[in-house]
Specification:
The complex is a heterodimer of chains A (438) and B (266). Chain A has 17 helices and 21 strands. Chain A has 438 residues and is an alpha/beta fold. Chain A folds into 3 domains: 45 residues; 205 residues, Rossmann fold, CATH 3.40.50.740; 167 residues, Dimethylsulfoxide Reductase, domain 2 (3-Layer(aba) Sandwich), CATH 3.40.228.10. A 9-stranded mixed β-sheet of chain A has the order 5-4-19-18-17-6-7-15-16. In chain A, strands 10-9-8-13-14 form a 5-stranded parallel β-sheet. Chain A is globular, with a radius of gyration of 23 Å. The N and C termini of chain B lie far apart (45 Å). Chain B has a domain of 154 residues. Helix content of chain B is 5%, strand content 37%. Chains A and B meet through helix 4, helix 8 and helix 11 of A and loops of B. The complex binds iron/sulfur cluster (SF4). Iron/sulfur cluster binds next to helix 1 of chain A.
């Protein structure tokens, strides 16, 4: 006999779909089938069932090979490393739950470390802009029920957030959007003709790196002021047309992704996009929302901000929280040679950082806590496999619109495996002993 | 004026936060006392004397004190932090936050300086003989008050985001400047004698930018407003005048809307 579990949360992307169904074996040890999730979400669930999964910590030996060690030895290595380091970094946090993130913050305080999440390479620039000028935003429920103007700027949900369009932004029939897609106008701003762009009523094919100029031009167009003939490769008439389309809606939303947060101008792009949103509220109702990637990167920002006052790139080395991306951000710290230990959890910098930032990790004491084998486990000295969050352990997570959702445990992890939180608590307690505060 | 010379003898393994290296922190102290001032390498606190040789006693006040920094300080941050008077000479290349939050006195950096120099500067003079990094004279993260007074001269090139949220004072770059100049500014003046990249004056409310060389791409929010004959930092020339950022909010003074100004030498 098998059991079907309904209302499961998908722990993959920031859409955090909450209508997934899974079929598990009667003893609750095997996950057999996944329904309603998209392809990437389904893969995430099924990956936990891989037969060749690493289930015990492994320490790299001098000859480069791995030696299996106990969780207790892994705790000892991690705590010793953090106790000795002058400037350790605790990086990642975006694919783990808020409970684990909070224990991580205790460790950061005890070891006077730097701590950062994956926003450092995706929406950190958004957070900088939000601090600079604020954020008029809403929930995805409001988008579904009200929005009739949808703008995707520098993002491609058709591939990166596959169910976003069907659940919230384009297709669903909401309270005031009864005709679904028919009630909405879609504007896509992207230098590439993506699958999302192909669906658009208006596709503004902006020149690479000129989003800031285009956003400024929209603001000028709202005010009916003079514009050059062409801005960012787009004729002025087309910009005015798009500006009118935005103004004429009843409720609009700008969704934006890494195409604008990590291209030239970075935080300024978002700063200007927020200003566009603010301007539009002179004419109608408009909101803006980042398309957050990792399923709980938003939660990590919440937990950092709640406990340290800043949402990412926090430096605790002086015993108080400081924040200045460019100085306290992980890639900069690694490339500049400012760190002497690296603790990675719930993310894969080895795959996403530039090589000049990955190399230093290989040359310092390093721990990677991750259920998978990744490029980061490949360069770390210690790999600590853990239970899959959102599959083998529940916990609190935040959707991209800052709505907290509790993930559910659907199967048992392999015998004897710890969760992120359990492992971190052991490290924290050992660190307390080493620091003489236990 | 008394001179204190500090010379790097044991370079830090990581980076050093030397926020006590300023005429203000040294004033009234003998060399031995100066060597006891704290510095920070990561999460460990030790003394200036562990890393630097200190020679010479300081004057009674900051205004009577000149600090000379010698040796390799490429990995030293916060030189001249919050200084209010006196002089600081950095003989080599220094890292981030040179003269951050400075209010007075003079800093002469003979090499290059890193990012965030003169953050939220209120007064005094910063001269850089080499190049300056990003966020020169900008606001601190999340703050809307950038440089509000004083003068910065960079003889080489400057990085991106110079004069962000600038309110007053003057920045002169003899070389080229990277993207984003005086973003969100509400006052102050920046003169770029070389070439500018793009995104000059974005979201600018008030303030003035002069560019002697080329501008790769103009902001669409800057509207042509004729030509003018001007004398700028000793150079008399004809400039094309633009006003903006037309997309941004602007204040009215005596019933007239005030815009930011961008002048490009013809
Ligand atoms: S859209 Fe995102 S949250 Fe929803 S099922 Fe796909 S990967 Fe999971």
């Amino acid at each position: 006999m098998t059991k079907k579990i309904t209302d499961v949360i998908c722990p993959f992307c920031g859409t955090l779909c909450d209508d997934v169904e899974v079929v598990v074996s009667d003893d609750g040890k095997q996950l057999l089938e996944v329904y309603n999730a998209c392809v990437i979400g389904t893969e995430k669930f099924l990956h936990s069932q891989a037969k060749d999964r690493v289930t015990r910590p492994r320490l790299r030996q001098d000859d480069g090979s791995w030696k299996e060690i106990s969780y207790d030895d892994a705790v000892e290595y991690s705590a010793q490393m953090l106790a000795k380091a002058k400037k350790p970094m605790l990086f990642g946090w975006s694919s783990t739950n808020c409970e684990a993130q909070s224990v991580g913050n205790e460790i950061a305080e005890l070891s006077r470390a730097c701590c950062d999440n994956t926003a450092a390479t995706c929406h950190g620039t958004t957070l900088i802009a939000v601090q600079d000028i604020g954020l008029p935003t809403c929930t995805l429920g409001e988008v579904k029920n009200r929005a009739d103007r949808i703008i995707f700027w520098g993002c491609n949900p058709a591939h990166a957030h596959p169910r976003h369009m069907s659940r919230y932004s384009i297709f669903p029939r909401g309270f005031f959007t009864g005709k679904g897609q028919m009630s909405r106008k879609l504007i896509v701003v992207d230098p590439r003709v993506t699958d999302t762009a192909k669906m658009a009523d208006v596709h503004l094919q902006v020149e690479q790196g000129r989003d800031y100029e285009l956003l400024d031009a929209l603001r000028v167009a709202f005010k009916g002021e003079w514009l050059p003939d062409v801005v960012a490769g787009i004729p002025a008439e087309k910009i005015r047309e798009a500006a009118d389309m935005m103004k004429s809606g009843r409720f609009g939303i700008i969704f934006f992704g890494m195409g604008v947060t990590q291209s030239l101008s970075k935080n300024h792009n978002i700063d200007e996009a927020i200003a566009v949103t603010k301007d539009l509220n002179e004419y109608t109702k408009f909101s803006i929302m980042p398309m957050r990637g990792h399923y709980n990167v938003t939660g990590s920002g919440e937990v950092f901000a709640w406990q340290f006052g800043f949402p990412f790139s926090v430096d605790l080395t002086r015993g108080f929280a400081r924040y200045n991306p460019g100085d306290t951000s992980t890639i900069d710290l690694l490339v500049r040679g400012e760190l002497d230990a690296m603790f990675t959890i719930g993310s894969d910098p080895g795959a996403h950082f530039p090589i000049s930032a990955v190399k230093p990790i290989a040359n310092m004491p390093s721990v990677c806590v991750d259920p998978h084998l990744t490029p980061t486990t490949g360069v770390s000295k210690l790999h600590v496999p853990v239970a899959f969050n959102g599959v083998e352990v529940g916990g609190n997570c935040y959707r991209m619109d800052n709505v907290p959702i509790d993930c559910r445990k659907v199967v048992e992890p392999p015998e004897g495996m710890l969760t992120d939180e359990q492992f971190l608590i052991k490290v924290r307690d050992r660190l307390k002993q080493l620091k003489g505060v236990a | 004026m008394e001179t204190v010379t500090i010379t790097m003898k044991n370079a830090p393994a990581l980076y050093l936060e030397a926020d006590n290296v300023s005429p203000d922190a040294f004033a009234g102290k003998k060399a031995a006392q100066i060597a006891e001032l704290s510095v920070h390498e990561g999460n460990t606190t030790s003394t200036l004397g562990k890393y630097f040789d200190v020679s010479g006693d300081a004057g009674a006040t900051a205004a009577d004190t000149k600090v000379v920094v010698r040796g390799d300080v490429k990995k030293v941050k916060y030189l001249g932090f919050k200084m209010t008077a006196g002089e600081l000479v950095i003989e080599g290349t220094a890292d981030q936050y040179v003269g951050a939050w400075m209010k007075g006195g003079k800093i002469l950096a003979k090499g290059d300086i890193g990012a965030f120099a003169a953050t939220a500067m209120k007064g005094g003079e910063l001269t850089v003989e080499g190049n300056a990094g990003n966020y020169l004279g900008a606001a601190y993260r999340g703050d809307w008050r950038g440089m509000s007074g004083g003068k910065i001269l960079v003889k080489g090139n400057a990085g991106s985001d110079i004069g962000m949220y600038m309110l007053g004072g003057e920045i002169i770059v003899n070389g080229n400047a990277d993207v984003h100049v005086m973003t969100h500014a509400e006052g102050g003046k920046t003169i770029i004698k070389g070439n500018a990249a793009s995104k000059l004056g974005g979201q600018m409310v008030e303030g003035t930018i002069f560019v002697f060389g080329s501008i790769e791409v103009m902001m669409p929010g800057f509207k042509p407003n004729g030509e003018v004959e001007l004398e700028v930092d000793g150079t008399k020339a004809k400039f094309a005048h633009f006003i903006g950022d037309m997309g941004e909010r602007h204040k009215k003074k005596k019933g007239v809307v005030v815009y930011g100004n961008l002048y490009k030498k013809i």
